[in-house]
Amino acid sequence: MKGNFIDLFAGCGGFSLGLMNAGWNGLFAVEKDSMAFDTLRHNLVDNDKFKHDWPSWLKKEATTIEDLIENHSENLKGLNGMVDLIVGGPPCQGFSMLGLRNSDDPRNKLTEKYLEVVALIQPKYIILENVKGFATKFDGDGCKDHVPYSEIVKEKFDALGYDTTSMMVSTDQWGVPQRRTRFILLAIRKSLSQCPDQILEDFQGSRHQYLSGKGLPTDRSVTVHEAISDLESKGKKLIPVTDANVPSYQQIKYREPKKLSAYAKMMRLGSNGKAPDSLRLTKHRPATVAKFQLILDSCGKGHNLTNHDRERLNIKKQVIVPLAKGKVSPTVTTLPDDILHYSEPRILTVRENARLQSFPDWFEFKGKYTTGGKLRTKECPRYTQVGNAVPPLFAEALGCVIDGLE
């Protein structure tokens, strides 16, 4: 066992799952959305496979980090000396390069709450994950000295007694079949007299051994075809959806093929032959199917549609990427219709997105599939849970590199 960790802004549990796979012991996780927390609890709290050592003073329910601090600050102080690692990815919407960057987005300030928990518990190590925009300065909007918010956060960690370093890393370099560039900040308590730069250097140097140990290629990225080809609907029997009360929807009747890629075999481990959940196929209108088929037939794959193609096909949507079966996926987002299947005129299922995020098939998602309108900012259905998650395979690699540090 490598030590105890706490997961803040845990979502459905991607970071926690990766750390537990690496041998870490979870104490508790904080997530405000009830659907995302239900997923985390089902898989990583109430499951026989993994269990957090949940403290008696904290209810096993969705909660905010603000409520955690307000109601349990003394309990958190009592954990001083008992927590080796705090991880988490504070909400990133205000920093995202894909959205409307806003230095005044109130969700940005949740990083300050993250720091408050660190100050109370004083763990040995902290890993903070966020989008690459976290380390990109805001121009012309009143941000302090126009510096990246990451630099401000590093100064605050220094004041709390931590040495820090950071790096940008794309998850496709770590076996995840997805081009997902993330900012990683590592902080180490100064009293430990350890060099964070050396640890991240060791992390980079461990890539070949980590991938080899998983049976994954070391000289190239895992492709989307290797990740999801056994989930194609073509030639499969369709049955009513089995994991939600939506009888009008269909899913494939999954049967594990005799031949699977190394990546798919890894995703199937622990399933004991059971079909994965979240296989619901979207009911596209005939006109939408025709438009998607035209995109697959006439547009380049593996990248966003060109302006020429968007104008030619009268498409107003900002992002729509038809997958290229022999390449990695672009970043999986919370918007289900950002990505099209490489050979079928449809968007991906939740499970296909989960495969691209490296969630194993035994991991089950809870809550409704999608939401819309004003509820998009208030609810975290399955597609959103997957899109917001830290890829477990990448989190496991991070967890492995901190093994044995004293």
Largest sheet properties: 6 strands, mixed
Oligomer: single chain
Strand content: 5-15%
Per DSSP E runs of 2 or more residues, the count of β-strands stands at 10
Shape: globular
> Can you count the helices?
14
* Spatial strand order of the main sheet: 2-1-3-4-6-5
Give me the strand/helix succession: EHEHHEHEHEEHHHEEHHHEEHHH
* Overall pLDDT: 91
Structural class: alpha/beta
Low-confidence stretches: 93-101
Which CATH-level-2 architecture of the largest domain?
3-Layer(aba) Sandwich
Q: Could you state the CATH homologous superfamily of the largest domain?
A: Vaccinia Virus protein VP39
CATH fold title of the largest domain = Rossmann fold
| CA-based gyration radius | 21 Å
Number of domains: 2
Helix content: 25-40%
**Terminal Cα separation, in Å?**
13 Å
A few lines on this structure:
The chain is α/β, with parallel strands linked by helices and 406 residues long. Helices cover 31% and strands 12% of the residues. It has helices at residues 14-21, 34-44, 65-77, 110-121, 149-159, 196-205, 207-213, 224-228, 262-268, 286-298, 307-312, 350-356, 382-388, 392-401; strands at 4-8, 25-30, 85-88, 125-131, 162-170, 181-189, 238-240, 250-252, 321-322, 339-340.
Word description of this protein:
There is one protein chain. The protein has 406 residues and is α/β, with parallel strands linked by helices. It has two domains: 4-216 and 391-401, 3-Layer(aba) Sandwich (Rossmann fold), CATH 3.40.50; 224-384, DNA Methylase, Chain A, domain 2, CATH 3.90.120. It contains 14 helices and ten strands. α1 (14-21) crosses α14, α3 runs parallel beside α4 (110-121) and α6 crosses α14 (392-401). The longest helix is centred in the N-terminal third of the chain and has 13 residues, at 65-77. The protein is globular and about 60 Å long. The model is unreliable at 93-101 (pLDDT under 50).
